[in-house]
Design brief:
The chain has 439 residues and is α/β, with parallel strands linked by helices. It has 2 domains: 195 residues, Rossmann fold, CATH 3.40.50.720; 238 residues, Rossmann fold (3-Layer(aba) Sandwich). It is elongated, with a radius of gyration of 23 Å. Helix 14 links the parallel strand 9 and strand 10. The protein has a 6-stranded parallel β-sheet, sandwiched between helices. Strands 11-10-9-12-13-14 form a 6-stranded parallel β-sheet. Strands 7-8 form a two-stranded parallel ribbon. Helix content is 45%, strand content 14%. It binds uridine-5'-diphosphate-glucuronic acid. Uridine-5'-diphosphate-glucuronic acid binds next to helix 10 and helix 12.
Length: 439
């Protein structure tokens, strides 16, 4: 099939490469010329495992191309996936849908024949009808343009795997759709044939599935982090608690990792956008618990700063503090709403000299936080430090020998914000080991 992917960020670039891998002819569109240039050369402007090889493989054969031209995209195919970003509005909880509506407005006047528009961006429920309104107003093809919603559940750092082998496909259609379901099922043919559960819904349910999924994931993380708060005062161990809870298959162990909490470009924004939308719909009470989910998450960052104070005997000013990790989670260079950098910045503001190391996110961190210090190796970052904070759980950090590291530091004190360092090993090597939610 021939298809386009409009918006080539994490979602769109991965989707475009994956659709080429499934055998389709793909044209990716992005309004950022730098992105188009890099992607056309077979590389993304961000780090995502296994994505560059896939981009290189399919740009080399010509099956995957990129452009900044809407006329070219409209002429190329009559199946268009939209994966543009829907960030949080500055200073508000709601989504900023400017990019989405702009993309639809650009495409619409160029749709002269039957076409299927597939929304993949995360949106507040009720957005798809607004997209349909724009198309009805501006598309010459009128109601021959069908709109469906097909949310994306990929995780950064597993984006390629999640796109090619999703755990489910959700497709939302209107009752007027006649071609869209057939076309979308054909596009995902290989994935559906592999046995992937496919759930067909109306538009509103499809939009809501994504909001609900991210709200649930955020709630699960904040739940275990709330238990960590209780554990801290009760003298219990949240790590063992999580393990014990996780054996109940109704609860499950995944997404129940206690620590510094969630960040990134999705969960924080999506719970806030979901609450804002619920408010507009007059059902805000149904989601007030998400305010608490957000608050618990932010408290973890504050607690980490408090623990740092405690470990530095109440004086942070003038102390040297090492932060391991800048990305919001391992295997990405994405620093959006990174808990690690939020803590680093808070300690810097309180007068500490904070030195950061991250295996992949150094460039992004440097640009966003030039006031912090950076070192090019985890051990170099810890040279003469008064306190080591482990804030993003890259495997590089777990494999470091705490014994040889102890010889480099001013004081062997570590706080494990992700509960992945081995306390027995670190304590045996002479370190004072503290963690969130553990004695
Ligand atoms: C999240 C969802 O997991 C995806 O399903 C969804 O498609 C995506 O948002 C999106 O909306 O596009 P992502 O933001 O890539 O994906 O990251 P997650 O792997 O969910 O992790 C989010 C944050 O939660 C990270 O900061 C991570 O460190 C933290 N986390 C995760 C925990 O603190 N504990 C856990 O047990 C799991």
């Amino acid at each position: 099939m021939k298809l386009t992917v409009i918006g080539c960020g994490y979602l769109g670039a991965t989707h475009a490469a994956a659709m080429a891998e499934l055998g389709h002819q793909v044209l990716g569109l992005d309004i950022d010329p730098d992105k188009v240039t890099a992607l056309s050369q077979g590389r993304a402007l961000f780090y995502e495992p296994n994505l560059d090889p896939l981009l290189a493989k399919h740009t080399a054969t010509g099956r995957l191309r990129f452009t900044a031209s809407y006329p070219e995209a409209a002429a190329f195919a009559d199946l268009h996936f939209i994966g543009v970003g829907t960030p949080q509005k500055p200073g508000e909880m709601a989504y900023d849908l400017t990019h989405l509506f702009a993309a639809v407005r650009q495409l619409a006047p160029r749709l002269r024949g039957p076409a299927v528009i597939v929304g993949k961006s995360t949106v507040p429920v009720g957005t798809a009808p607004q997209v349909i309104d724009i198309l009805r107003e501006f598309a010459p093809a009128g109601d021959q343009v069908e709109v469906c919603w097909n949310p994306e559940f990929l995780r950064e750092s597993h984006a390629v795997e999640d796109t090619l082998h999703p755990d489910r496909i959700v497709m939302g259609f209107t009752s007027e759709n006649t071609r869209a379901e057939k076309v979308l099922r054909q596009a995902y043919g290989k994935i559906i044939e592999a046995g992937t559960p496919t759930i067909v819904t109306d538009l509103a349910t499809a939009e809501l599935v994504k909001s609900a999924a991210n709200a649930f994931l955020a709630t699960k993380i904040s739940f275990i982090n709330a238990m960590a708060e209780v554990c801290e005062t009760a003298g219990a161990d949240v790590q063992l608690l999580a393990e014990a809870l996780g054996h109940d298959i109704r609860i499950g162990r995944r997404g129940l990792r206690p620590g510094l909490g969630f960040g990134g470009g999705c969960l924080p924004k999506d719970i806030r956008g979901f609450m804002a939308r619920a408010g507009e719909l007059g059902v805000d009470q149904a989601l007030t618990f998400l305010r608490e989910v957000d608050a618990i998450n932010n408290r973890r960052r504050e607690r980490m700063v408090d623990l740092a104070f405690e470990q530095c005997d109440g004086v942070i000013k003038g102390k040297r503090i090492t932060v391991w990790g800048a990305a919001f989670k391992p295997d990405t260079d994405d620093i959006r709403d990174s808990p690690a950098l939020a803590v680093a910045q808070a300690l810097h503001q309180r007068g500490a000299t904070v030195t950061v190391f991250d295996p992949k996110a150094m460039d992004n961190a440097r640009k966003a936080h030039p006031q912090l210090e950076y070192a090019d190796h985890p051990a170099a970052a810890a040279q003469n430090t008064d306190l080591l904070l482990h804030l993003t759980e890259w495997p590089e950090f777990t494999s470091i020998d705490p014994g040889s590291l102890a010889a480099r530091v001013a004081a062997p004190r570590v706080i494990d914000g992700r509960n992945t360092l081995d306390p027995v090993r670190w304590r045996a090597a002479g370190w004072t080991y503290r963690a969130l939610g553990r004695p």
